[in-house]
Specification:
Elements: H1 2-17, H2 21-48, H3 59-83, H4 88-110, H5 116-170, E1 173-175, E2 180-182
Antiparallel strand pairs: 1-2
Helix pairs in contact: 1-4, 2-3, 4-5
């Protein structure tokens, strides 16, 4: 529900003020970075029991921090590109795809354990994506057939009106009041 509200609000603001995804990202990224820098160490201490400044940095840790930051930037840019263009449901489906990628890459790169719960969750997400894609395609086909049907009705109605006008202009009609004929 929250995602739907955020996507709809941001999408409507983008349209209202005619701003693009990158402009929106450039306005919100500093606020997000500031809040992360201020709140991050305290949340990390609450979760791990030690401050981040006490961590011994190695070259491998720095490499993975830079890789993680790069992937986070790519993820944020891709999300902001999607917000104004897709519906809230499509945005949510993309979010589930991102989660599946994170779980799969964690398993491939870091040898993290894939539990039955993770695998079933990913399978359910894939099934949901397939059903959603199918439903969207069916809706598009139904809408296009309705539009085609309405257009054929319009053109036949226009054709009937034209024939009626032609027929009325070419026939002699009696004027009942005057007893004469109009031509």
């Amino acid at each position: 529900m929250k995602t739907h509200l955020v996507v709809q609000t941001i999408g409507s603001l983008q349209k209202k003020y005619s701003i693009g995804s990158f402009e929106l990202l450039s306005k919100t990224a500093p606020i997000q970075a500031f809040s992360l820098l201020v709140l991050g160490p305290f949340i990390d201490y609450y979760l791990n029991g030690q401050f981040i400044m006490n961590y011994k940095l190695s070259s491998g840790a720095i490499l993975f921090i830079l890789l993680s930051c790069s992937l986070a930037v790519f993820c944020n840019v891709s999300q902001y590109l999607c917000i104004g263009r897709f519906s809230a449901v499509s945005f949510q489906v993309l979010g589930h795809m991102k989660t599946m990628c994170v779980l799969t890459l964690g398993w491939l790169l870091f040898d993290s354990q894939l539990t039955l719960k993770n695998i079933l969750g990913m399978a359910l997400a894939v099934l949901g994506m397939v059903v959603y894609s199918w439903a969207v395609e069916v809706e598009k086909q139904v809408n296009s057939s309705i539009i085609a049907h309405l257009k054929s009705k319009e053109s036949s109605t226009e054709e009937e009106i034209r024939l009626l006008k032609d027929g009325a202009e070419n026939t002699n009609v009696k004027d009942v009041e005057l007893g004469g004929s109009k031509s």
